[in-house]
Amino acid sequence: MDLSPEQCRAARGLLDWTQERLAARAGVSRSTVRDFECHRHVLHRGTETLLIRTLQEAGVVLLPPGEQGHGVRMR
């Protein structure tokens, strides 16, 4: 599954996490999360996997794109 910047921001919002908290839990830099969410760069596959795994382990379900785009919800 691909993670969109909008999904990442929405997932953090559901968890009430800052960019710093997500970055620390995923083991990446805050600038990586910030730049991804601001569409400054795309993620390497390994980094994307770390972020997805971290969000899912925290209870976020990432929904694939449908008629209205990507989505997120809590498990």
UniProtKB/TrEMBL annotation:
<dbReference type="Pfam" id="PF01381">
    <property type="entry name" value="HTH_3"/>
</dbReference>
<dbReference type="GO" id="GO:0003677">
    <property type="term" value="F:DNA binding"/>
</dbReference>
<protein>
    <recommendedName>
        <fullName>HTH cro/C1-type domain-containing protein</fullName>
    </recommendedName>
</protein>
<dbReference type="InterPro" id="IPR010982">
    <property type="entry name" value="Lambda_DNA-bd_dom_sf"/>
</dbReference>
<feature type="domain" description="HTH cro/C1-type">
    <location>
        <begin position="9"/>
        <end position="37"/>
    </location>
</feature>
<dbReference type="InterPro" id="IPR001387">
    <property type="entry name" value="Cro/C1-type_HTH"/>
</dbReference>
